[in-house]
Amino acid sequence: MESGKAIWVFGILFFLLAGIEASQLGGGLRKCGFPAVYNFGDSNSDTGGRSAALGEVPPPNGETFFGKPSGRFCDGRLIIDLIVENLGLPYLSAYLDSIGTNFRHGANFATGGSSILPGGYSPFNLDLQISQFIQFKSRTTALYKQLGDHSNRPRPRDFSKALYTFDIGQNDLAYGFQHTNEAQTRDSIPTILDEFARAVQQLYKEGARVFWVHNTGPIGCLPYNEIYYQPKPGNLDSNGCVEPQNEVAQEFNRQLKDRVSQLRAKLPHAAFTYVDVFSAKYTLISNANNQGKLLLILSSFENPLEFCCGSYYGYHIDCGKKAIVNGTIYGAPCHNPSRYISWDGIHYSQAANLLIAEVILNGSLSDPPISIRKACQNPKNA
Ligand SMILES: *[C@@H]1O[C@H](CO)[C@@H](O)[C@H](O)[C@H]1NC(C)=O
Ligand SMILES: *[C@@H]1O[C@H](CO)[C@@H](O)[C@H](O)[C@H]1NC(C)=O
């Protein structure tokens, strides 16, 4: 009788637990929203850091969405903006920006020109961005203890529940191509990724648990590179992209994916999503080029290697500047940015970012293949 009762109790417990388990797995019912996003990167995800620290981004940047320059090298929103929109969070303020910022739901440490290794185009390399984060965390935590909660500041308990996003590495490759060559740049990849892995481990030590890692894009398809670095016949692919540069980017991505796997094994409580942004961007460019397979929405794009703002043809003028040379106006206003994949020869237009975000946020190009909203349900994070 005693043992019969025990079986009965055990049975009820079993069904209760099974029920909880099912509700966790079924339909994403397990509660796991991100209260904050902390981002590290370069101009691909800089929402105002470089502009605040090193010189304001001029108009017509921002013209499509913000109606004025917003510190972004783009006519509108970047992928990081579309990420926080998707998560129901406000746009990230740049850590380096001292005006009108709000860090309640995260902060952005990305700055235009940044690389993983020090000594590139920007002083704010990844290691420095991580030390800025550590300072940000300790000082806001101290303020919380001293003054209590404040609507512009993060809650200390949110740091371990936040999403940590990375989009960095493109400038390590660009700097390598400019100052050495493809072979040497390829050889430097393990050193670059050692530094990346170190950065992730530092964040882990600080309590970061969920990581979302973008791989690097097809750098050889940036019009700037296509014009300046390697415009030799025979090294362009069918889309007009510099193939040897894209091959180095692909090698970087293969090794990055391996590092992420190693980090998964090494950091037992962390969840990593590796996101193949390269494929999203490259597919967009090839589709726009491939008249036969045009998707409806892409049919409005110009040649993918053209860009809207600034000029590198004949006379180099950066986006936002203007010059009249021999009667020709360079840097004339940029009409119809939504018809271009590239905004200024280096950075993608908002129209392109919207299409890229559409395929990367739902997990279709991710390892593991989960959407960003469910990245916190990544099994390793249980
Ligand atoms: C402008 O004209 C001068 C003289 O004809 C020529 O040398 C120069 O290359 C031209 N510059 C550009 C940017 O076309
Ligand atoms: C993700 O979105 C793209 C573009 O809308 C779509 O083609 C793809 O099927 C979606 N994948 C998943 C897993 O939902």
Automatic annotation (TrEMBL):
Pfam families: Lipase_GDSL
Leader sequence segment: 1-22
Source superkingdom: Eukaryota
Gene3D superfamilies cross-referenced by the UniProt entry: SGNH hydrolase (3.40.50.1110)
Species per Swiss-Prot/TrEMBL record: Ilex paraguariensis (yerba mate)
Keyword Isomerase: no
Listed InterPro entries: GDSL, SGNH_hydro_sf, SGNH_plant_lipase-like
GO molecular function, one term: hydrolase activity
Lipoprotein as UniProt keyword: no
PANTHER family xref list: GDSL-LIKE LIPASE_ACYLHYDROLASE, ZINC FINGER FYVE DOMAIN CONTAINING PROTEIN
Family listed: Belongs to the 'GDSL' lipolytic enzyme family.
Name of the molecule in the record: Uncharacterized protein
Lineage summary: Eukaryota, Viridiplantae, Streptophyta, Embryophyta, Tracheophyta
Keywords per UniProt: Glycoprotein, Hydrolase, Signal
